[in-house]
Design goal:
- The complex is a heterodimer of chains A (309) and B (376).
- By secondary structure, chain A is mostly helical.
- Chain A has helices spanning 2-28, 34-37, 46-55, 62-74, 87-122, 127-141, 144-158, 172-202, 205-212, 217-246, 249-254, 260-270, 273-301.
- In chain A, helix 5 (87-122) packs antiparallel against helix 6, helix 5 (87-122) runs antiparallel to helix 10 and helix 10 (217-246) runs antiparallel to helix 13.
- Chain A is flat.
- The termini of chain A are close together.
- Chain B is mostly helical.
- Chain B has a single domain (100-375), classed as Orthogonal Bundle (MetI-like fold), CATH 1.10.3720.10.
- Helix content of chain B is 63%, strand content 0%.
- Chain B has helices at 31-38, 46-54, 61-68, 83-86, 98-108, 110-127, 129-132, 164-200, 202-216, 220-231, 236-264, 267-274, 279-315, 327-335, 343-370.
- Chain B starts with 30 loop residues before the first helix and ends in a 6-residue tail after the last helix.
- Classes of the chains: A mainly alpha (309), B mainly alpha (376).
- Chain A binds chain B through residues 11, 14-15, 18-19, 22-23, 26-27, 30-32, 124-125, 137-138, 140-146, 149, 152-153, 157, 196, 199, 243, 246-247, 249-250, 253, 264-265, 268-269, 271, 276, 280, 283-284, 287-288, and chain B through 210-211, 213-215, 217-219, 221-223, 225-227, 229-232, 304-305, 308, 311-312, 315-316, 328, 331, 335, 338-339, 342, 345, 349, 352-354, 356-357, 360-361, 364, 374, 376.
Chain lengths: 309, 376
């Protein structure tokens, strides 16, 4: 176990370096002068441009800039945004909302996806199963932004049950609709995964044994089928947390949520490189870490899996 | 049905064979036999062509033999008849291959029929929009703003007075184009990298897998926004396809690598190696065809998701240039008037959702047909 964790952590180092270098290159090496863009149409003194460039290390060769950035990140300094605000402060403001939103989405997709998936898997080939399967495909096919508008129109405007946008009010009620939208695609995947897994385990030998020794259907389902079927589902959910946080750009835009996605998107359109790079770096770390945790969780839940040294 | 003619040897030219021994009782002529000769693998040899020229009755060597002699007993050629061929085989059924099996399964699935028909329709719309709508989608008149359906304009007009139906029809091409081009790039790039990593293993695998992880760790849409924002109007179709493929290939590479790893140590690969076949040829001729089915399934499903990704980018105003008004752009355009005229959003969104649904359904049907493990 210790060996495995060590090896995986060692593998994370090049991935972290590569991903940050990639995103840094895309932000700072592609055409466009972010410093000039700060001034818009106004004429600006070349000396001022020079000073700002040196302040943000933009006058250094590219690889030195990246090195300085990396050094900052590793020592806990996320740099300063082009608007002069410490990026750490922006992160502190944006992350809690997105984490809350992603966790809510995770709970929604887990509950609905697993419940529907279990019933569909136990009744494979029946009407409920086919309906659930087609609905899950429809959920995947309808893009997030369309789903967002549909719910906004239906639940927000027509029925008036939930607030249409979030803005400053980040209560659970206000975040419910965006969480539903964010969860929709993953919910379909959770449902399909549970269904396949349950249907597979329902015909397993140990289930027959459990039934043969006189266990009731409910107990068989709960204690034997469900426990074994949920292993891949739990791991999917774990990995999905990172995906949800990174994938919230569109949802946060539609519902006007001041989270990571919205902040990054606005920073990109403003050309605020330092903010973009730091926010994405954190997303990458969350993504890599959640994938590592999932692999460990997999081994902990399923004794058949042994982690290779 | 008796199997007196070894089917595998049909292809040896008659002249090259030893003279047939005393003939056999006339074998029943079957149509199935002929099919068996031309079957799935699709190899046509000179011997076969020759035989076909001789006419339908010359189905096999034994059949030729029977016309010359009329003795009672049949002696099998020791060098031609294998043990398995003496056993009765149902030759009315052509020998089965994985693809033939899959095709038979597919044809019976309503899911496949529906999705295939939908995809044919969408492709037709994308290739020949003129067949479906003669109206000019750029001939807009503000006088028609938000007018309802009327003759020649079945879906009415949008805010700018443009024909909604014409727009939806013409929106198919850019969406489908990006989807197909991205998928092709991902299959070639991800397939090649995954195959090399899986087949050669060792340090190459380590390097390529970490490279995949790097691209996999950054969300596709986020990366695309960063890239397209700095490219502005210079991106075009190539830019959108490039960035989606650049961050989409690791998934295909992982699937391919897994499939190649599972096949790499099979006996038939060892056999090919023992026969002196070069490594590259083994990979291409023996390993890749067996890795094809998971790749095809993944490619079909991801084609749908790339169409969604393009729509998302165009919706954000960052995707294709404005000359190509894809469904995503139309949805973005309609969102401004969502409360006033929700139907503006409904039509392009439905077209998009149906197209994506068709590809996902096809992927599902293919998975059921090609993946023995998923069969219920």
């Amino acid at each position: 176990m210790g060996w495995y964790v060590g090896r995986r952590l060692a593998q994370m180092v090049p991935v972290f370096l590569g991903a940050t270098l990639l995103i840094y290159t895309m932000v700072f090496l592609l055409p466009g002068d972010p410093v000039k863009a700060m001034f818009g149409e106004r004429p600006v003194n070349e000396a001022i441009l020079e000073r700002i460039r040196s302040e943000y290390n933009l006058d250094q060769p590219f690889i030195v800039q990246y090195g300085l950035y990396l050094k900052g990140v590793l020592t806990g300094d996320l740099g300063t945004s082009f608007s002069g605000r410490p990026v750490a402060e922006v992160v502190q403001q944006a992350y809690p909302v997105t984490v809350k939103l992603a966790l809510m989405a995770l709970v929604i997709e887990a509950v609905i996806g697993v419940v529907v998936g279990v019933f569909a898997g136990l009744r494979r080939g029946k009407l409920f199963d086919s309906t659930a399967l087609v609905l899950s495909m429809a959920l995947i096919a309808v893009p997030t932004f369309v789903m967002g508008f549909l719910l906004q129109l239906l639940l927000g405007v027509k029925l008036g049950w939930l607030p249409t946008t979030v803005g400053g009010n980040q209560s659970i009620k206000a975040l419910l609709m965006p969480a539903l939208v964010l969860a929709s695609v993953s919910m379909a995947y959770v449902m399909r995964l549970t269904r396949t897994s349950v249907a597979e385990n329902a015909t397993a030998d140990y289930v027959r044994t459990a039934t043969a020794k006189g266990l009731g259907r409910r107990a068989v389902v709960r204690r034997h089928i469900l426990r074994n079927s949920l292993i891949p589902v739990v791991t999917f959910l774990g990995a999905d947390l990172g995906t949800l946080m990174g994938g919230a750009i569109v949802t946060e835009g539609i519902f006007n949520i001041p989270g990571v996605g919205n902040t990054v998107f606005q920073a990109i359109t403003r050309g605020d490189g330092p903010t973009v790079v730091s926010m994405v770096t954190i997303l990458v770390v969350v993504f890599i870490m959640s994938n590592l945790l999932v692999d460990l969780l997999y081994a902990a839940l399923d004794p058949r899996i042994r982690l290779v040294r | 049905m008796s199997a007196d003619t070894p089917k595998n040897k049909d292809q040896v030219p008659d002249a090259a064979r030893p003279a047939p021994p005393v003939g056999s009782p006339p074998p029943p002529e079957t149509e199935g036999r002929e099919e068996a000769g031309v079957d799935g693998i699709g190899q046509v040899t000179p011997g076969m062509a020759e035989k076909q020229a001789e006419g339908a009755k010359a189905v096999g060597r034994a059949a030729v033999a029977k016309t010359e002699t009329a003795t009672e007993h049949f002696f099998a050629d020791f060098d031609e008849t294998e043990l398995g061929d003496v056993d009765a085989l149902d030759e009315s059924v052509p020998p089965s291959s994985m693809w033939r099996d899959a095709w038979r399964k597919l044809r019976r699935q309503p899911l496949f029929t529906i999705s295939a028909l939908l995809i044919v329709l969408v492709l037709a719309v994308a290739l020949f929009p003129g067949w479906f709508s003669q109206a000019n989608m750029n001939a807009c008149s503000l006088a028609d703003s938000l007018k309802g359906p009327q003759a020649g304009h079945p879906l009415g007009f949008d805010k700018q007075g443009c024909d909604i139906y014409a727009r939806v029809i013409h929106g198919a091409r850019p969406s489908v184009l990006v989807g197909i081009l991205t998928t092709l790039t991902v299959v070639v790039l991800g397939g090649a990298i995954g195959a090399l990593a899986g087949y050669y293993g060792r340090w190459l695998d380590a390097v390529l897998s970490r490279l995949g992880d790097v691209f996999f760790a950054i969300p596709v849409v986020l990366a695309a926004i960063v890239f397209l924002q700095s490219m502005r109007d210079r991106a075009g179709v190539v830019g959108v396809v490039a960035v989606l493929a650049a961050f989409g290939w690791p998934q295909m590479a992982r699937i391919t690598r897994g499939a190649v790893l599972a096949i790499r140590d099979s006996d038939f690969v060892t056999a090919a190696r023992a026969l002196g076949v070069s490594r590259g040829k083994i990979l291409w001729r023996h390993v890749m065809p067996n890795a094809a089915s998971p790749m095809i399934v993944t490619a079909t499903v991801s084609l749908g998701t790339y169409i969604v990704a393009e729509a998302t980018l165009s919706f954000l105003g960052l995707g294709l240039p404005l000359t190509m008004r894809s469904w995503g752009w139309q949805i973005g355009d309609a969102k401004t008037y969502l409360r006033e005229a929700p139907e503006l959003l409904f039509w392009p969104a439905s077209a998009l959702a149906i197209t994506v649904l068709a590809f996902i359904m096809l992927g599902d049907a293919l998975r059921d047909a090609l993946d023995p493990k998923a069969r219920g």
